[in-house]
Specification:
The chain is mainly alpha-helical. Helices cover about 70% and strands about 5% of the residues. The chain has a single domain, classed as Arp2/3 complex 21 kDa subunit ARPC3.
Length: about 270
C-alpha cells in the first residue's frame, strides 16, 4: 500500500513538473523578436551617434527655440529604450544603454587620439585640411583660435566637449529613464502606458538637458564668453524641445507597442 502510494505520488509530481516546463519557442518567432530588437537598438545607436557627430557644429532657430542640430534626433533614443523596456524588459534596455556608453567612450577616445597624431606636411596637405581664419574665434572650451587652424582640430574643439558632456548626461538620463519606466509600470500594475512613457521620459530629459548644456558651455560661462541668460535659454530650449517630442510620441508609442506586442506574441502587461 505504501509502495503504491509512493509510486502514485511520484507520478503526480513528475506530471506536475512536466506541466510546468515551458514549451520551446518557435524558432521563427525567436528570430522575429531578435530582428525587431536589433532594429530598435540600431536606431537608438544611430540617433546617439548623430548627436556626437553633428553635435553643436550648427545652431538652428525653431520658432522661439535655439537648438544645436545634434539635439534633433536625440529624443528618439528615449522612445527606443521605452519600447525595449516594454517589450523586452529592463535587462535588455540596460544592455543597449551600456553598449551606447561604450561607443561614446570609443568616439571620444578616437577623436582625442586623432588630435594628437602628427599631420602630413608640404605638398601632401590637402587644400581643405587647413582653414585660414579672417578673424579670431572662441571655441566651447573657452580657447581662442586665430590665423589658421586644421579643420579636424576645429571640429575637435567644437565637439569633444559636447561628446564628453553628452556621455555624462547620457549615463545619468538613460539609466534613470529605464528605472523610472519600470517604477511606474510596477506601481500601476502594467496599466496606464501613457503614464510610464511620459513621466519617465520627462524627468530623465530634464536631467539630460541641464547636464549636457552646463557641461558643454560651462567653460565659456566661467570665462565670461557666455552670459547666464544665454545659458539658461539653451537649457530651456533644449528641454522644451525634448518635452514636446516626448509628449508627441505618446500616440506612436501606443501604436508600436500594440502592433509589436501582437507581432512578437509578447504580453506587455507583465511588470517584471
Amino acid at each position: 500500500m505504501n509502495h503504491t502510494s509512493g509510486t502514485t505520488l511520484h507520478s503526480m509530481q513528475s506530471n506536475t513538473v512536466l506541466s510546468q516546463t515551458p514549451e520551446p519557442l518557435d524558432p521563427q518567432l525567436v528570430e522575429r523578436r531578435e530582428r525587431v530588437f536589433f532594429v530598435l537598438a540600431a536606431f537608438f545607436i544611430c540617433c546617439m551617434t548623430l548627436l556626437n557627430v553633428v553635435g553643436i557644429t550648427r545652431f538652428i532657430q525653431l520658432g522661439p527655440l535655439q537648438l544645436a542640430l545634434g539635439v534633433l534626433p536625440y529624443p528618439l533614443t528615449f522612445l527606443c529604450t521605452d519600447l525595449i523596456c516594454e517589450l523586452y524588459g529592463r535587462a535588455r534596455a540596460n544592455f543597449v544603454v551600456s553598449v551606447g556608453l561604450g561607443l561614446n567612450v570609443f568616439i571620444f577616445a578616437f577623436m582625442s587620439l586623432g588630435s594628437y597624431l602628427p599631420s602630413v606636411t608640404g605638398a601632401a596637405v590637402p587644400p581643405w585640411q587647413v582653414l585660414q581664419l579672417a578673424e579670431s574665434i572662441s571655441t566651447p572650451t573657452g580657447a581662442t583660435i586665430s590665423g589658421s587652424v586644421e579643420l579636424f582640430q576645429l571640429l575637435y574643439q567644437c565637439t569633444a566637449g559636447a561628446v564628453f558632456a553628452s556621455m555624462m548626461a547620457y549615463v545619468t538620463a538613460q539609466y534613470a529613464d529605464i528605472k523610472l519606466f519600470h517604477f511606474w509600470k510596477k506601481l500601476t500594475h502594467g496599466k496606464h502606458l501613457w503614464l510610464r512613457n511620459n513621466f519617465s521620459t520627462l524627468v530623465s530629459q530634464g536631467v539630460d538637458s541641464f547636464m549636457v548644456v552646463s557641461i558643454t558651455f560651462g567653460a565659456l560661462f566661467v570665462a565670461g564668453a557666455m552670459q547666464l541668460s544665454t545659458l539658461l535659454l539653451l537649457m530651456g530650449s533644449n528641454y522644451l524641445f525634448k518635452m514636446t517630442v516626448a509628449l508627441a510620441d505618446t500616440l506612436p508609442f501606443y501604436f508600436l507597442v500594440g502592433k509589436l506586442s501582437r507581432y512578437l506574441h509578447i504580453d506587455n502587461q507583465s511588470v517584471a
